[in-house]
Amino acid sequence: MNWDRIFAKMFDQYELNARLLPGLLLLLPPITYLTLLYGATNPIVVGLSSVLATCGGPYFLSSFVRTWGLRAQNRLYRRWDGQPSTLLLRHRDTYLPQQTKLRYHSLVALRLGVAIPSLEEEKQHPVQADEAYMAAADALRPLTNDRKRFPFIFKELVAYGFNRNAYGSRWVGLCVAVATLIASAFHGGILRLQTPYLSSSGLDLAHSLVFLVSLGLSALWCLHFTADTAWFAGVCYAKRLWEALEELSKKPARPPSDAQELRRTHGNLS
User: Fold this and answer.
1) Structural domain spans, the chain
2) Which of 74, 89, 196, 260 maximizes the CB count within 10 A of its CB?
3) Which one-letter DSSP state was computed for residue 111?
């Protein structure tokens, strides 16, 4: 079965890399288990693959991972006190150099027509200030959807989506890896329900590879797919997003009444 062709027809590049690939990592230990211990041409393996492909298995897997990723994202935003794109524009945030941040503030007003609060306005009205920063990001994203013109933004978006979704489903992945490890140990006679409970006589190459993959994925879920990894990917995407302001054309000037209305919409920060 040509899985590459099936995936190419069902998913675009973002869905494939940011959603389906984390899902396949979830299933890598049991896939290794079935392939090495039963054989890729085994009727059970072939039949199971066909059923999963024809009954929407890949789509369900990507949707499952996306759902868990979005749930984790909401928790991460509360932990971080905002989206990375919002945090980078805050006057009180120190991740970006001050001059770079002020230049982005000027470009947001010039290119997007969104009023950015001053430092004092942000101190007095932090919630309304964050709403202005989020409005700027919401206005900028649709302008950077051209993957050929902004290839690095898309790459960082995919990287963030991948790490966020993997982080959100990490406990599922860990449970699957541990369950596969235990199943392989029983299959090879390494673990038994009667004495002797442990034996190394069944540890052949196939079972060793299953152990290696399961242990490696367990370590990956615990040590790599963390909140810090998701944070780093989110900040990289946010930086690329704001860098795109340099490439946008100047937004036509608004009438004074519209500008005043826009400022009132963002919480009357002036």
Assistant:
1) 3-265
2) 89
3) I
